[in-house]
Q: What sequence folds into this?
């Protein structure tokens, strides 16, 4: 009973932090899409120079631990005269790393549709752009949904690292409350439960979307997307 | 400058890197004719077809579609609409039904309205015997059915001629018959066709002219019956005998 009261007391603060966590997730994923898609296009359709540049970015973004990246952005950049608000710094760090991973998802999805369909579309007299929008994209999106759901859940959870540079998100709100109540176990468990609910909602939402637009033979569910 | 020919190819050359795959190919195709190109693998047969619609731009030579020189023509997308192409691996769009595969070129390229496009798609599917599969997705069709959808898709664009690039090569033997039958019907209906195939039975009975190619050159061309029974070149005889042996004379 005591625990329940504690949770009820903590909940307004935790929910306030949850809201910040959701905002961090939203903006980070958005950066991931806005940067990740062009990176994927550059990898698939770009020339050698462009491919080289994005390869370096991708390599870096996937090799540096997110925590190190956040610390660099928050404490390193001001030394170069670039002072960024902590929320923005967190979004940039998390978003740019996610963009590298998302670009891999989109690249794989585009390439898995296959050159023969592109050729067939061109043979009907479609320009490259038309062929991409009407033939490649509708299939690539469906193929990308499951890994994007996965990536979204990862980003959601990794926003907790923003805590280290001072963003008052879910985890830091919890810390504040623990400092006054001295009940770490209950509060951390409540925080874990909130993350669990959030990731379940993200995954559930995307899998509903996936089911709604499911086409036999496309994506993992279909089982034999490359039947020929 | 030509001509009454529907398609005319003059001194076509192509190379991939150092390797010259086409060493001066010339022939023509008249309206309503079916010509079949045969020859060993890697002799550039498919390259000719790809050169014609510039999926692979030719290195040298000229190709005319009626009076238009299409090797350098700017509006390639308009030219491609006039030339159908049937692929060895079908090239069906996996996210669209059989009907949708046919409609997309009509609505997005030819700007036909949806209802008209649908009517035409069903008509063409009926023509290849697949009307009841209109709403099936490619993954739900057999190889032979997929290829027939591929042919219907090419037909619906109402092209002046259709190029077939080994249309039965990726099919199980028992499925080639249904595709060849559709092609035979088309030839009889007067469709102009240029076919690359190893199906000797089809070549012998349907082609108006047989073109035997080897190592990037035309060795011999002419009436299929003559090439099969009394060719001018020993090499033609060897090859055709060998293939007839391998694939048989019939169409399953």
A:
């Amino acid at each position: 009973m005591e625990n329940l009261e504690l949770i009820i007391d903590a909940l307004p603060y935790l929910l306030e932090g949850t809201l910040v966590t959701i905002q961090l997730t939203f903006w980070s994923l958005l950066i991931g899409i806005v940067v990740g898609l062009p990176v994927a296009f550059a990898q698939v359709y770009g020339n050698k120079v462009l491919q080289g540049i994005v390869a370096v970015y991708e390599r870096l973004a996937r090799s540096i631990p997110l925590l190190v990246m956040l610390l660099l952005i928050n404490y390193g950049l001001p030394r170069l005269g670039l002072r960024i608000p902590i929320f923005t710094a967190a979004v940039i760090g998390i978003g740019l790393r996610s963009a590298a991973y998302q670009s891999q998802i989109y690249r794989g999805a585009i390439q898995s549709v296959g050159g023969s369909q592109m050729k067939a579309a061109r043979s009907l007299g479609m320009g490259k752009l038309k062929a991409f929008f009407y033939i490649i994209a509708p299939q690539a999106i469906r193929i990308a949904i499951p890994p994007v759901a996965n990536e979204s859940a990862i980003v959601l959870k990794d926003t907790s690292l923003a805590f280290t540079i001072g963003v008052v998100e879910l985890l830091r709100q919890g810390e504040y409350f623990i400092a006054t109540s001295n009940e770490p176990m209950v509060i951390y468990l409540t925080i874990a439960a909130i993350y669990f609910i959030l990731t379940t909602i993200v995954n559930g939402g995307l899998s509903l979307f996936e089911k709604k637009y499911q086409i036999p033979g496309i994506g993992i569910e279909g089982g034999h997307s490359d039947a020929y | 400058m030509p001509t009454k020919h529907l398609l005319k190819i003059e001194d076509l050359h192509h190379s991939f890197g150092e390797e010259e795959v086409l060493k001066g190919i010339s022939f023509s195709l008249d309206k309503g004719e079916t010509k079949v190109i045969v020859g060993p693998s890697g002799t550039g047969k498919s390259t000719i077809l790809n050169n014609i619609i510039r999926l692979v731009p030719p290195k040298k030579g000229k190709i005319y579609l009626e009076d238009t020189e299409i090797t350098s023509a700017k509006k390639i997308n308009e030219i491609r609409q006039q030339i159908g192409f049937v692929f060895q691996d079908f090239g069906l769009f996996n996210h669209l039904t059989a009907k949708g595969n046919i409609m997309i070129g009509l609505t997005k390229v030819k700007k036909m309205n949806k209802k008209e496009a649908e009517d035409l798609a069903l008509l063409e599917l009926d023509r290849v015997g697949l009307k009841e599969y209109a709403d099936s997705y490619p993954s739900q069709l057999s190889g032979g059915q997929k290829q027939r959808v591929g042919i219907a898709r090419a037909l619906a664009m109402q092209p002046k001629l259709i190029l077939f690039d080994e249309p039965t090569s990726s099919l199980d033997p028992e499925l080639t018959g249904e595709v060849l039958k559709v092609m035979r019907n088309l030839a009889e209906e007067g469709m102009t066709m240029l076919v690359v195939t190893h199906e000797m039975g089809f070549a012998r009975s349907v082609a108006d002219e047989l073109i035997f190619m080897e190592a990037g050159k035309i060795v011999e061309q002419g009436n299929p019956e003559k090439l099969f029974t009394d060719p001018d070149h020993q090499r033609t005889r060897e090859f055709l005998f060998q293939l007839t042996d391998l694939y048989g004379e019939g169409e399953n």
In short: The two ends of chain A are 62 Å apart (CA to CA).
